[in-house]
Each structure stands twice: as C-alpha cells, then as structure tokens.
Amino acid sequence: MEHYKLLYFIHAALAVLVSLGLIAHMVILWKAWRRADAGVLQQKLKRTRQISLPLLAVLALLLPLSGWWLVHLAGWPLGQLWLLASSVLFLLLVPLGLLLGGRLRAWQALGEQPAPPRLPRFALAYAGLILLVLVAIMGLMGAKPV
Ligand code: HEM
C-alpha cells in the first residue's frame, strides 16, 4: 500500500506540474507578445519550444504510465467509465499538443517580423483547450464515475 501511496502522490504531482507549467508559459508568452519587444519574444519562444514543451510532453506522457500502474496495483476494473473516458481524453492531447507546437514553430519562424494577431490567438486557443482537457481528466479522476 505504501508503494501505491507514493505512486499516487507522483501521479497527482505530475498532473499539477503539467497544468501549472502550461499556464506559466501561456502567461509568459502572452506578456512578451503584448510588450512587442521582438528580441525578448523570440528568446521566450525559443526556450519554450526547445526546453519547456518537450519537458512538459515527457511529464504528460508519464501520467498514463503512472495511472495505469496505479490501476494495476489497486486492481480497478478496466471498464470503468472514468478510466475509459480519461484515456480517450488523454489521446486528444496528442493532436492538440502537435497543433500548439506547430503554431509556436510558425511564430518563431517569423523572426523579428510582427506576428499577425491570429497566430498567437490560435496558440493560446490550443493551449487553453489542452488545459480544459487536463482539468476534465482531473475531474474524472477525482469523481470516478463508474
Ligand atoms: C489516462 C490514463 C490514466 C489513468 C489510467 C489514471 C489512473 C488513476 C488512478 C488509478 C488514480 C488513483 C485513484 C485513487 O486511488 O483514488 C488516479 C488519480 C489521479 N489522477 Fe489519474 N490516471 C490517468 C491519467 C491522468 C491524467 C492525464 C491526469 C491529469 C490531468 C490525472 C490526474 C489525476 C489526479 C489529479 C488524481 C488524484 C485524484 C483524487 O484522488 O482526487 N490522471 N489516476
């Protein structure tokens, strides 16, 4: 049982870290865009794409791994609604993550040129959808509808 508790803590901490990391980067990039300092914005975009996004993706991928391990340890029946629904929702994060990555790449490729407002707005919308899906999964994990 101790093993379960530790894994449970790691799983929940990962969920919080991924969500907070995403929010932090949304705020950082949005503020940098508003400041209209092309140099600062490019630097933030570069760091986000090269370091933060890959790191967040790895942390996010650890969620289903630790989650299914918890299921295995606790012996939950696999057909429960909360497990199935959260797995489907998690799969949704893959295309959304790729779309977000694509927008950020296009934004960075503009270099010092000002971005058309559509570009950061789409990036924000994808990030917002990812956050929404994460919150929905956390809701399912907490409520556990069978
Ligand atoms: C998709 C595969 C996943 C599976 C199979 C899974 C499975 C589980 C299991 C078995 C628990 C422990 C329940 C308990 O002992 O009460 C749990 C808790 C939790 N999971 Fe997941 N999980 C998955 C993905 C996720 C994701 C993607 C997130 C984040 C968005 C997440 C967030 C949480 C949270 C916050 C808890 C603690 C909930 C609470 O007890 O209030 N899980 N999960």
TrEMBL record:
<dbReference type="Pfam" id="PF10027">
    <property type="entry name" value="DUF2269"/>
</dbReference>
<keyword id="KW-0472">Membrane</keyword>
<feature type="transmembrane region" description="Helical">
    <location>
        <begin position="82"/>
        <end position="101"/>
    </location>
</feature>
<feature type="transmembrane region" description="Helical">
    <location>
        <begin position="122"/>
        <end position="143"/>
    </location>
</feature>
<keyword id="KW-0812">Transmembrane</keyword>
<feature type="transmembrane region" description="Helical">
    <location>
        <begin position="51"/>
        <end position="70"/>
    </location>
</feature>
<keyword id="KW-1133">Transmembrane helix</keyword>
<feature type="transmembrane region" description="Helical">
    <location>
        <begin position="6"/>
        <end position="30"/>
    </location>
</feature>
<protein>
    <submittedName>
        <fullName>Integral membrane protein</fullName>
    </submittedName>
</protein>
<dbReference type="InterPro" id="IPR018729">
    <property type="entry name" value="DUF2269_transmembrane"/>
</dbReference>
